[in-house]
Specification:
about 25% helix, Thrombin, subunit H, two-stranded antiparallel sheet, alpha+beta
Length: about 160
Amino acid sequence: MLIRRIATRVTQTLAVRRAAVRKKIQVPVIVSVEPDRNGAKQEADSTGPTLSGVTRDISACGIGFVASAIRINEKYLVGQERILRVEMQIPGRPIRMKVVGRRYEEVGIHMSTERFMIGAEIVEMTEGDRRAYERFIQNAEKYAKKMGADEAFELD
């Protein structure tokens, strides 16, 4: 019994140390679905419908954001390894990344305030955007104070 408890604590400690540190900060995001490469009429750079949201937390390998819907048109944001384009509106410049939604949960209390928290893994980012994003993560607390602790962003 004692050995099992010790092994569990060691495993939990290692898991915590392996996980990327999450910074709680709210910045606006615009999300769209990466066009299917199979469609002959669609081009990789075409823009389609978007969904606005706000981040809840960010880390070096992923983001959590809240949006007013779990899908754009008929395409769900989580599942089927669907690639999403995310544009994060940080002070100074937007950061663009491609992510894959890994989980979601409904966070709204009532249908009129229905919101979804979406956890996504970052799968692609340009080198310049990566540097700016990492700099933003390092200074997230400073940005949060500058933007005001109680400032909230509206969701569409």
